# Entry
Amino acid sequence: MTQTPELPLRASGSREGGAPAPVPSRRRRPHRAWSVAAVTFLTIIGAAGFASLPGLLIDPLHAEFHWSRATIGFAVSVNLALYGLTAPFAAALMDRFGIRRVVAVALAVIATGAGLTVFMTASWQLVLLWGVLVGLGSGSMALAFAATVTGRWFTDRRGLVTGILTAAGASGQLVFLPLLSWIVDRYEWRPAAVTVALAAVAVVPLVWFLLRDHPADVGLAPYGATKFVPKPPPQRGAARRALRALATAAGTGPFWLLAGTFAICGATTNGLVKTHFVPAAHDHGMPMTAAASLLAVIGVFDIAGTIASGWFTDRFDTRRLLAVYYGLRGLSLMFLPLLLADTVRPPMVFFIVFYGLDWVATVPPTIALCREHYGEDGAIVFGWVLAAHQVGAALIAFLGGLARDLFGTYNPVWYASGALCALAALMALVIQRRAEPGQMRPAVA
# Structure
């Protein structure tokens, strides 16, 4: 077979087949996989921004339309639930129709839902537009999107790229929250909704022209691969496999313990803090922009905490890690009512840093336990565990608003969430390790 310049070099400096490699006359261009990863990163940042606005809308919508916080929280809960429930099927749609088409349509759906909210006059329209449309669109760009891109485009550096794309969610929160809170505070909520819609539209050309479904589409091998990988045919049975994996995992104890702990994780992060921290701080006289900035800082330390948790997961018992994470999170939530004030004080800064480090630290050990117990189906099972995460978030988004309406304060919600974290810590310790860790469960046919 004729040697071509595209064949990868071995560490010894020779091409496959033993022929000596010519000295390159100019610097090679970066592999196309990195531009695909960059577009994916920007898209996930946008998805995080779309998900960050509802928490800023609770007080403005309550003031303008006199809707109860429970009603507004219900729309947010629909959004969060669909975000999670869409994830296991989003990868199946990408296998069937391609990454580029699915993501472009998802962005268009988000832009439509966010843009039309400026014309709404009834609460059911909020549920339909922001709950259903934005929930479905953003759910199509959740972790399944990142996993599909890294699985197709990267052989080397796959773990690094996966970690970076996972951290993109925190980066999106950091970028969008202060901007959107400033817009809401200065120009009210409608310009903020339009900003989200325009951001979704702006990403579509990047996705359509720079994102490709598979390296074979541009005649390349995946980054780090030693040979060309043909593009697989459309997978028509991927959704069926996802359902079969769920049915198999649902018959085991570890699945329900993992789903239960991750539901509490979602309840105490996306459902509680991301949705209700800003209005809770505003109840104590803190300006909305200051509260939103604190929430954005959580995203900064979230990146560091996630990377550190991945390092710990390779070295320590994952069950004990989860127990420590949930226990510390619950303790911090118990103290939060004492820290809320009209200004940002040092104890509140300490809480933000501490809580940020713990925000998604639970993800690496949860993925590791799914892989340990379910082998080749571990990623699919994690998709369903992630769905439980979002269902938990949805419940607390609604119940938190209801509690605020009933009690006039968020304090009972903070204390109840702390107790739930203590329960999650105990559940994590109950998960049994496999008797033979090297032996994986067979994949679902």
